[in-house]
Amino acid sequence: MALINIDGDPWLTDLDACERLSNEIQSQLAARKRENTLSREYGVISGTVRVRLKQLGTELEQLNRKLGLLTNSLTAAETERRQRKIESLQSKLIQLQRQFNSAGADRDALFQMSNARNDEDDDPALIPSQSSYSVADLRAQQTRILEDQNEGLDALSKVIARQKQLATRIGGEVDLHNEILDDLADTIETTHSGTDRETRQIATITTESSTW
Fold this sequence. Notes:
mainly alpha; Methane Monooxygenase Hydroxylase, Chain G, domain 1; 4 helices; elongated; T_SNARE_dom; Putative snare protein tlg1/syntaxin 6; Syntaxin-8_SNARE
């Protein structure tokens, strides 16, 4: 059952973002399945999915940590419901990773077969005529795949940098809240001391009045 974000709860907003990201990854894997494994489109989609899988894993870890900070402000039942949502998304992430890796393994096997053929003889004239790819095509495709992987790593680096900034900001907010709580505790202590002093003065005046 989906959790309805009525009051604009930031945690539920982050949960919705994770769910949307997982659905986008699922759609991209379906789109990749329709592409030829040696096509450029297949490589581009693979690079994008690889980055988004890592992003989803990172965001789920942060979502779990944030839930730990909210435990005292939530009921036990609500905490359990939210924990189940995280676990469900984590299970889906594992399934998506398996889909991604299984397709990648098939592609690697195809490249290994191509490389073995190239090692035997790089002469394009010796490649069977029924093959739809030449040695030059396969080498060009391998080059494009490496370029796509580099692009994916660059995108991942940017995601990690953003996550680091977010973690730093959250840490700053926690420190600020701690300072506010410390100030509040000092104010309460001062007020309490003043109240005790006034109470003693009133008691003294009352005692003196009773002796007149």
